[in-house]
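Dear support,

We are seeing what looks like truncated structure output for some complexes. This example has two components. We would appreciate it if you could run it in full and send us the complete token output so we can diff it against ours.
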Amino acid sequence: MRYFGDVAALARKDLRLELRARDTLPAMLLFVLSTLVVFHFALPTGADEVAAQGLLWVALVFTALLGLARAWAPEREGGALEGLVLAPSDRSAIWLGKSAAVFVFLGLIELVALPAFALFFSPLQAEGIAGALLANVGICAVGTLLAAMAAASRTRELILPLLFLPLAIPLVVGGVGASVSTEPGRYLVFLGLYDAVFAILCWASFEYVVSE
Amino acid sequence: MLAALSAALVGLAIVLSFWVAPEDADQGISQKIFYFHVPIALTAYACFGWGAWKALRLLWKGGDGYDLESYVAIHQGTIFGALTLATGSIWAKASWGHWWVWDSNQLVLFLVLFLFYSAYFMLRFSIEEGPRRANVSAVYALFGVALIPVSFFAIRLAEDFIHPTTFTRDGPQMTGTMFLAFCVSWLAITLLAYTLYRVELLGKRLDGNLRELREALS
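Here is the complete output from our reference environment:
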């Protein structure tokens, strides 16, 4: 299956670039840890641990934004995006490969951030972690496409949060619900639904975002 | 001609809402705002849907007109969305004493959509004019209509842990005259939106033609 071979090659390229340059991941890591510390000071003593669960999602969304702002930087700086678009493969493979790489980055960050959150505030249930994984898929799918749109614009990093945050609201609802609600199943199903709808939409429309 | 008809219908809607329809037993005169608030909201949805349809036609078939039509429709939708928030805010102040309440799912949904479509304009005007801008705007418009139902369900789900819903306001229980006033108002606002859409589209097309002529002459 040549399509998935292309996707794997592109994802591998991004992972290898990050492994050599090591600029985005350490920054995201430090950002999420600093944000969690800020939250400790932002929560007054009366606030219960449920409020902290909500703030975790704020931290995750903004850390993801930090990483997404740099997602297309290698292609933009080297002018590689035109080359990829001209290549004789399905253009949606570019989006899928990039999303997969961003998913791995975000997963690695959460591998540190979630235990840190459990240490600073309160431990997470299994449903919360499942919610985080499902929401990751949505963040990476939608965020990668929006980052490509932002790369086409004059204002670049400035506009990505504006595009991303309204679309991230359902993900935050799903994630927080999975963590704090008495019926987390509904929220996990909702997150799955969001992922399905928007992944298909991104997959189908990426071609139009990068081509004339 | 279209403008005159819209003006007449809006006038009729105002007369019907304020003088003919009876006052609501619970809410009194502040309920009257529903005759405008709900049609404006429905019209905003219709504009966003229309803009997304034109965007889909653009991506599917290509061609010159669709980008401008999609943009103007979304522009109208955003204006009517802002009006929805304004009228909803007035209603909230009259009903509950606060200018903004998170209880009304429809208002929260419109807030999210308003933010989303405001970003549409920021995106559109930060890209150079051309096919790239048309494509990117079209894709974003399609994301908008996908967001409407997803956000709606998200806000419904969020009720459980944000705060318990103590006020339910699904819509007024309407008697015959009230329903008539509502329908006339709905038709009036829809026609108004369509008129504004046509006027703005014509204006922008004339702008474009004028610019082309200037460039051809210089």
